[in-house]
Structure formats: C-alpha cells, structure tokens
Amino acid sequence: MASPDIEEHHPPIITGTNPLTSNLSDVGHLPVEILLQIFTLHSASLMRAPGASQNRRSLARIWIAHVCQRWREIALEENKLWSNLLFVTPEITELMLSRAGSAPLAITMGQVDSTSRAQALSDILSRHLHRVCSLEIGDIPYTQPDFLHLLTTPAPILETLALRSKYSGSQMPYRLLDCGNAPALKHLEIINFYIPLYSLLPIVPTLAYLHLGSKYSSSQGPPAEALLGSLKLLPLLETLILENYIPTDHYPFNAVENPVECLPLRKLSLRASSTPIHRLLGVIRVPNASLELVFTNRVGDEATAAETVSLIVKARKIQGRLALQELATRHLWPERYTSVLEFSFDREASGIGSDSSISVACVEAVHHSLAFWLPAFEEAFVELSTARSIRMESPHWGFPRRQWKHLGEKMAHVKAITFSPTSGTPGDLFMVLDEGLKSALPPFPSLSTLTAECGHILGRDREALASALRNRPDSHRVGTLRVTYSDNKVSRANISALEETVPGLKVEWVNECSKRGEDESDE
Fold first, then answer.
1. Which residues of 254-291 are buried (b: 16+ CB within 10 A; e: fewer)?
2. Is 138 helix (H, G, I), strand (E, B) or coil?
C-alpha cells in the first residue's frame, strides 16, 4: 500500500523495510498482539499533547509503520491505529482516512483559527459524521463556522462532543444533534456558547459527563426549573460541571420539599456567586459525589460559611461525622488568587461513596476567611482527630496562630505537614510548635515529616523552628525535615547544621525544578 508521506520524503527509512531486514530483525518476530499494543500506546502518547493533531511531530505515529516490513504490514491492516486523525496537511488527513477503513473516527482540533482548517473539518464531517465517535474542537471563532451546522444531522455512534468557543457568548447552531441524532452520546462539553434553552443541546439519557461553562456569568441562561427537568432525564450522569452557568432565578417551591435525587453522580463542580450555588444545593441530593464549590463573589463572613456548610450536609445527605484524612489549601491554576480549602476523607471509616473530597474556593480570597470556613465544617461534620496530613499550597490562605494551636491539639495523628513553595510563610506554625513545648503533650504529637521552602526556613522564623525541633520530647521527635529549593546557589550550611543539633533529624533537599520536570515527563 502506498504511503506518500513517508515513501516520497524519507527513502532512507524505507530501506529498512525490505524482507531481508525484516527476517533479521528481532522486533519483527514479536507476537501480533504485542506489536499492536506497542503501536496503540505510541500513538496515544503522541496524541496527548495539546494541538497534537495539527503538530508535525505527531507524524511519528506514521513512521512506526516503517521499522520493518512485518511491522508495516500489521500496522496497515489495523484500521483503528489510523482513526485518530491528523490535520498536519490535507494529504495526511486523507491518507489516514483511507487507512482507517471503516473504523470509528476520533477528531480533535485544538484550533480552528483559519479558513482552510475549518473547511477541512467541514469536508470530513459532511462525508463521515456517521463514523465519528469523538469530536473535540477548540478555539472556535465567534461567527459560526460551517462545520457547526453539520452537527444538526445524525451522528449515530458519537460518544464524545466537546465544543469550546474562543469568545464568550458565541451562538450555538439551532437544536444541536436534536431528535435522537446522537443516541450514544456519553460526554458533552460546551464552553463559552450562549445557551438560552436546554432544548438546543443533546440532553440524552446516555450522558455520563456534562460540562457547561462560560468565562463570565450571565442571567440569560435557561430557567431554574429547566435545569431540574434536565437532571431528571439523565439517569446515568456521573460528572456535572457548571461554570458560570447556574440559573439565577428561584426554583419552584415544591423542589425544596422534593429535591432531585442524583444517585449516580460522582462529581459535582459549581462555579458562580454564592446565591445561585446555595439555591441549587437546596434542591438536589448528591450523596455519592465529591463537591467542588467555587464562589466568584467575595465570601468571607461567618454567616455565609455556616449556610454553605449546612446546604452541603443536606445535598450530600451527611449523617454523623466524616473521618478526615487530609486537610489542604491550594489555588486554582492559573488563577493564583482563587484559594481553595479542601477536605479529603477516609472512605471506609466514613462509610461514604467512591470519591471522598469536599472543597470550597473563593475567587476573591480574603486572608482571614479561613477562620470562618474551617470551624463551620468542623462543627457540622468534619472529624479533625483522624487526619494524617496537612498540605498548604495557597499563597493567600493560611491558618492564623490560634488556629494552628487548635489543630495541633485536635490532630494527634498527623504525621506530615507540607508547605509548598507557593504557600504563605509557615512562621505561625513554627511559633506554635515552639510555644507548645510547655504543654504536657506537644502540638501534633505524631508529626514525623515537615516540608518547607528553603527561604521560609532561613527567614526570621528559623530560630523558632530550630528550638521546636531541638526541644521536642524524644518520643515525639520530627525525624525528617524536607527542604525545597529552586536556586542551586542556595546556602545549605545553616539548615544542614540542624542535623547536628537536633537528635535523630535528617535533612532532605528537594530541587523543585527537577521535581517539576519529572512530574511533567510522567504525565
């Protein structure tokens, strides 16, 4: 079978595919099943990168069919290997279509920022929409491209549809995949489009994932009653994400008395001002779902925190206290000013669903508001005494000294406390650890590992930390001090000296730059 993308431009590669080379090659004798697995994993790894379908580096997917003649024959016979289309050039796209045969097609286009790309997509959808199982399009221009109008025709095997507009408020085509045109749809993601009615969307019973989002909040979306009606039509829904797309009007009175039960739901993520979020939590029940609430208005008062926690208890149908496993603060990337308070629970000890986290976030984080949020959760249902770790990542949310003291007394089983380089200073914790030595039992008596950034430890609070580590009772020693750094020129002498003055202490140095590189390569 001809392969113009390789044969015409890379003749040296093809010399390795002759029968003699194939017979001498060890890889040529691998079982077909293993070869196909190699091809599949190789293709999947290349296609994970953003914009992969339009990147020339993705042509390496094709080169794998030129290692030897046997590899080539097997690869060309496996239609599924070519069904995730590349849009590097029109010729490459047509080549992959021909090799895909009758296999279901997956189309991912990160940017439709040119007329030629939009036209290429329209041509494929007009001929092959009935074969498309996954369609993900990003950066769609404000004016409706022709390919959007094609999505009003039948797509019988389509399981994933993700449309992301470049600008907020873009117009949707009328009745997208309407009247059973997408009977197999499981994943629906619509971002930055104006959706005044749910009837414009393919709300089908097979949906397991629904994500509706916009950069900005709007009061022109579907009414509250329509949202509840749609949820009742989705018996298999496992993930629901609503970003600035929660109805702002009131729900019917009987909805409060008879809330909608969403038993299959495993994740509920809501982003809006506090009023729409509170109203929705009051009319649904999600006993098995993790909760992620992001408040876009300034929330930092005791009454709002108490009301939110009360509604979480009702929506999650929480009875009794939940065993906390980890307490954390973090920020939503790239929104550095959006701070998150997150609770992760022990599923078995708490007797709760498969996902066991609850988080609240504030876009306009008020530094002192943790003083309201944490007590509200603790009073309602969070059992602090079972926690095993604390992780601090938010640069804007930190516990004041009196709260660290309270946590140190309640969290007798915490073994690890971590301050990331992005977090605020751990000075208040160091002071509490030092001052608490006068008590019969030191704060965090089980603490064995403490992690902090080098600059935090070398700062003005170093003496408090050194005193706390040095004078803790032998039975409550901190065994490991993990020091993170990003500058290789940092002086280690003052910190490493702690190993000599603190019995049993080991100082570990962690280069954040190399660690980030390892994490990215793993992904």
1. ebeeebbebeebbbbbbbbbbebbbbbbebbbbebbbb
2. strand
Distances (CA, A) of 312 to 211, 252, 318, 467: 21, 20, 8, 42
Dist. CA 195–CA 220, nearest whole Å: 8
Can you tell me which residue has the tokens 């949310």?
397
SS (H, E, C) 150-192: HHHCCCCCCCEEEEEECCCCEECCCCCCCCCCCCCCCEEEEEC
**Euclidean distance between CA atoms 310 and 305, whole angstroms:** 9
Task: Dump pLDDT digits (tens) for 334-382.
Answer: 776 789 999 999 877 656 655 679 999 988 776 677 888 999 999 999 9
Phi-psi region of 320 (alpha: psi -120 to 50; beta: other; left: phi over 0): left
Does the pLDDT at position 478 exceed 50?
yes
Q: Which two tokens stand for residue 220?
A: 């022109």
305, 376 Cβ separation under 8 angstroms:
yes
Taking the CA atoms of residue 246, residue 252, residue 253 and residue 255 in that order, the dihedral angle to the nearest 10 degrees is: -70
